[in-house]
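Entry 14. Ran structure prediction on the chain below.
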Amino acid sequence: MWKDFKAFINRGNVIDLAVGVIMGAAFGKIVSSMVEDIVGPILGRILGKVKLSDYSFVIGMKPMPDGKPPEPILFKYGSFVQQVLDFLIVAFVVFLIVKLYSRFRKEAAPPPPTPTESLLAEIRDLLKKDSPAIVNKG
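Output, structure tokens:
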């Protein structure tokens, strides 16, 4: 069992996945900070400092022990709407970051053909030139 576990851990995919999860968590903090500290205040200013998470309505009363007054049971629809908006903002910011990254990323040139590939291409070209019917059959 130890051998199997060691082989599993030593696979490149597991290590790549672990690095991806760690980087994703760190990147998530950056994106969350951007949304909360930059985009959120701008939208709050534009919308007149509306705080959606405060919107709710009472759907019942929760009885409390020891003679304390009952507490309201709230249907917090504003909090849900706020979470959906936060998600959409984060998704849009990630979209913009990926778009910007892909714009500045240089495409790598394909590697030159190996000597074997060059030789095979020459043989293919000679076969096409000498007998096109044989090469085209399949």
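Strands lie at 57-62, 71-75. Will compare against last week's run tomorrow.
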